[in-house]
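Continuing from yesterday's entry. The apo prediction looked reasonable, so today I'm repeating it with NDP included to see how the binding region is handled. Same sequence as before; SMILES copied from the compound registry.
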Amino acid sequence: MKKIIVTGANGKMGQEVIRMISEQEDFELVGAVDVSNVGDDIHQLLGIDAPAVEISDDLALTLEKTDANVLVDFTNVTVVMDNVKVAMEKEIDVVVGATGITEVDLDRIKEMNQGATNKVIIAPNFAIGAILMMQFAKQAAKFMDHVEIIELHHDRKIDAPSGTAIKTAELIGENLSKDKNEIEQIEKISGARGGEHDNIHIHSVRLPGLVAHQEVIFGGLGQTLTIRHDSINRKSFMPGVELAIRKLEEIEGVVYGLDNVIDL
Ligand SMILES: NC(=O)C1=CN([C@@H]2O[C@H](COP(=O)(O)OP(=O)(O)OC[C@H]3O[C@@H](n4cnc5c(N)ncnc54)[C@H](OP(=O)(O)O)[C@@H]3O)[C@@H](O)[C@H]2O)C=CC1
Ligand SMILES: O=C(O)C1=N[C@H](C(=O)O)C[C@H](O)C1
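Holo prediction written out below.
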């Protein structure tokens, strides 16, 4: 039985994850942690009185009071590393959905995992279409070496660029020729050309009405290629979150990206 604590339980993703957990026979929600008041919402969400769920704003305390064996984190860029650290100290398995984990953070998590028995999956995007979009973009980069990324999200998102855009740039970067032969450019408004990661321009759009979307645009001689993915709701991420929780049993140590646990 997967006995799961969700951090960020009252958030948009946390609520969807709790709903998904309640639909699995071999998953049990034992703790719901959020700094917003989660109590009523959890009971409403599960549609039952769920006294067995430890509801709190403190992960360490919740870990003390439950026999959880998995943490699923959907908090945000500012707190995710603290939560991962608490879980690593307890040596429980972790699925990280919150974005903003940097390369330095990833190294720290791997360091904390040295000699430990717990497993960690960090996935900037759990939607299968997004994983395919990233893989197709990586493949296209072998043939077209001019590319920019436009990611578009709802206006409540606090981190920019998205974790997906960063991971996409890293995957494309593995196949991209380094010589871009760009002309010198003058930015008349700072940021007009977006940010750069691994030499790839990333543009972040934030608007109400959007959920999570990304275009990877390649340019070549007399042609462009656009690879686009749209998550139109947050259910799109749930099969991936469920899969990650199940795959914890099969992996070793720390895995970054769901592409590393599915057979592509
Ligand atoms: N990997 C993936 O496939 C996906 C990842 N994400 C990522 O997941 C994260 C959450 O997204 P989303 O649900 O939209 O965001 P929300 O802001 O809706 O949810 C985050 C929740 O975490 C709470 N929170 C803040 N600080 C703490 C803390 N210290 N301890 C516990 N809870 C805390 C927030 O409370 P309060 O509002 O009071 O601050 C909020 O309820 C983001 O990083 C996002 O980028 C999102 C979608 C898919
Ligand atoms: O905040 C979001 O909503 C999302 N965040 C993730 C990211 O930063 O890539 C995944 C998805 O794009 C939705």
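Comparison notes:
- The chain has two domains: 2-122+234-260, 128-231.
- The pocket of NDP (ligand 1) is lined by residues 7-8, 10-14, 33-36, 74-77, 79, 97-99, 123-126, 159, 237 (CB under 6 Å).
Will overlay with the apo model tomorrow.
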